[in-house]
Amino acid sequence: MSTVGLGGSPRGPEFISPPPHPLLPDISDKSVGPRWRLLALAGLLGISASAVTGGTAGFLAGRGSDAAPAPVPAPPAGVPSDLVAAAARALPGVVSVQVRTGSGGASGSGFVLDDRGHIVTNHHVVAGAGSVSVVGSDGRRLTAEVVGTDPGSDIAVLRVTPGPALQPLVLADPRGVRVGEPVLAVGSPLGLSGTVTAGIVSAVDRQVRLGGSTRQSAVQTDASINPGNSGGPLINARGEVIGVNTAIATLEGGGSIGIGFAVPVDRAREVAAGLIGRG
User: Fold this and answer.
1) Is residue 230 annotated as a catalytic residue, yes or no?
2) Active site residue: 17, 153, 188, 230, which one?
3) Does the annotation count 154 as an active-site position?
4) Is the pLDDT reported for residue 186 higher than 80?
5) Any domain includes 130
6) Total count of domains within the chain
7) Distance CA 248, CA 17 (A)
């Protein structure tokens, strides 16, 4: 399996899946057909999940087939079913990030963190930037200063002149994120600013390696995210940020296959606060 990040150039940190199971075909082998590669991908992700859920599965199996199913947790109180309102709340706080480098340019996304003009995006979007600008929901282009970046978490903070068109987004309580709840990925995939795609939280605390040797937890989603979505927010049905879109899993270098990863909001908030404090 090959994977890419979501920015322009560079394309972002490499997502490294768990090691292959000996009974599954090697999906990096081009002689293996597309159908087997998809089945193998599902198997690989299942192996990763088994490290977390194996104990519970074994417990339920030991109780026999007549065991009562585990109760499904109720969604957080006050979650609206209409995502239109959530999108309307989020869009004024999401920007397109335009980067100029010595070898060309790149683009990504970001969101407004506070009323002082701080914007959160990904490190890989602005790495090596000669100049950075952002375009808000009103179409105005603003010159941005890079306050600081953290390659380990793939978080960066920019600063622009505050204005009424840049509305800070609300950060969610990470303890309230639930598997199966509806989410929106907001950003500028392929330069198409103000794009919103819908999905669900596929997994929380997914242990992955995003370009480094250290595993870290990520929010997994099936909301369609593509190159250019990097740094944009993953929001819940209340319009609150639950993560920063960072990487997608792909097959044969293609686009989104419904497996995307976001830096959890609590880590993004902690890293951003540190960068602002030092900057």
Assistant:
1) yes
2) 230
3) yes
4) yes
5) yes
6) 1
7) 11
